[in-house]
Amino acid sequence: MTNDPFRLDGQLALVTGGGSGLGLAISQAFVTAGAKVIITGRREDRLKQAVAQLGPAAGYVPHDVTDLDSIPGMVALVEERWQPVDILVNNAGIHIKKLAVDTDAADLQQMMQTHLFGAFQLSRECGRRMAARQRGSIVMILSMAAMFGIPQVAAYTAAKSALLGLTRALAVELSPQNVRVNAIAPGWIETDMSRGALENDPAREQKILGRTPMNRLGEPLDIGYAAVFLCSPAAKFVTGVILPVDGGASIGF
Ligand code: NDP
User: Percentage of the chain surpassing pLDDT 70?
Assistant: First the structure.
């Protein structure tokens, strides 16, 4: 234990989609900062591999965030088996690349269920418990799609924009109980998801790099370190912010 305000010693973080990509990097950064981390996701093999990589401070619960009825039970199980949840990161996500005119109701439904409904209900469940303890931090993972219009991702954009609004609404309701609610808006970061979105689309990649002053994709740990800051005592007066971690993409010309 140290008094370093940038550390998370003794805290427990629940990270959805923590078995891969940004969720795994956020979990790694949390463990390095002294936290225990419980990761969730649908693929148990992926979760097991991730926990082996993260070490003894990590555990997992197989869970599909679209299974909304199971959310209160899942949070209760984590708190009983380990300890109260101090940090929730709503990171689990999927990507559908289609023009809006080709996006059907099932696509939209799946996108909203994963990004918005899951995050809303998990935040409500954890937020209620955190508020009773007068301590906690919730982080939403947004996207550049919540900052400006990007073609071929209308359903994803709708879901991420809803999460942006939810971040602000939860921040005003929960911050009086010392539960801070913030969001990270990642730019384009090297993961399976971004590889899938950019595969066979060099024009899109060029466009992204062209508007990113740092002229490269980010690394998953860039998002991890930002999450550590937002959840640490160093950010104790920070709530309701949308922090772009994007190499400047959101302000690039
Ligand atoms: P990955 O595809 O690597 O990770 C997504 C994770 O979410 C997986 O671990 C997956 O696990 C999990 N997941 C998906 N659906 C569900 C579900 N229904 N229930 C539980 N877990 C689920 O992508 P990224 O790491 O890139 O994406 C993570 C987040 O970051 C997403 O919200 C994404 O929108 C966002 N983002 C990513 C950017 C990038 O450039 N990479 C840019 C901006 C935002 P499993 O399949 O086992 O369930």
Answer: 100
Segments making up each domain of the chain, as ranges:
12-243
Burial class (CB in 10 A: 0-12, 13-18, 19+), 67: middle
How far apart are the CA of 93 and the centre of ligand 1, in A?
4
C-beta of residue 135 within 8 angstroms of C-beta of residue 179: yes
**Contact (Cβ atoms closer than 8 angstroms) between residue 40 and residue 14:** yes
224 lines ligand 1 (CB under 6 A): no
Query: Going along the chain, which residue ranges are E strands?
Result: 12-16, 36-41, 58-62, 87-90, 136-141, 179-186, 242-245
Structure tokens at 85: 């949840």
Ligand 1 atom nearest to 196, measured from its CA: 2
pLDDT tens column, 38-74:
999 999 999 999 999 999 999 999 999 999 999 999 9
Q: State pLDDT tens for residues 110-141.
A: 999 999 999 999 999 999 999 999 999 999 99
Q: Which atom of ligand 1 is nearest to the CA of 186?
A: 43
Q: Confirm or reject CATH 3.40.50.720 for domain 12-243, answering yes or no.
A: yes
CA–CA separation, 230 and 181 (whole Å): 9
Choose one of 75, 116, 191, 223 to mutate for the ligand 1 pocket test, by most ligand atoms within 8 angstroms of C-beta.
191
Q: Is the pTM value of this prediction over 0.85?
A: yes
Query: Which residues are CB-contacts of 119 (< 8 A; sequence separation ≥ 6)?
Result: 16, 65, 90, 140, 163, 166
Q: Is 225 a catalytic residue?
A: no
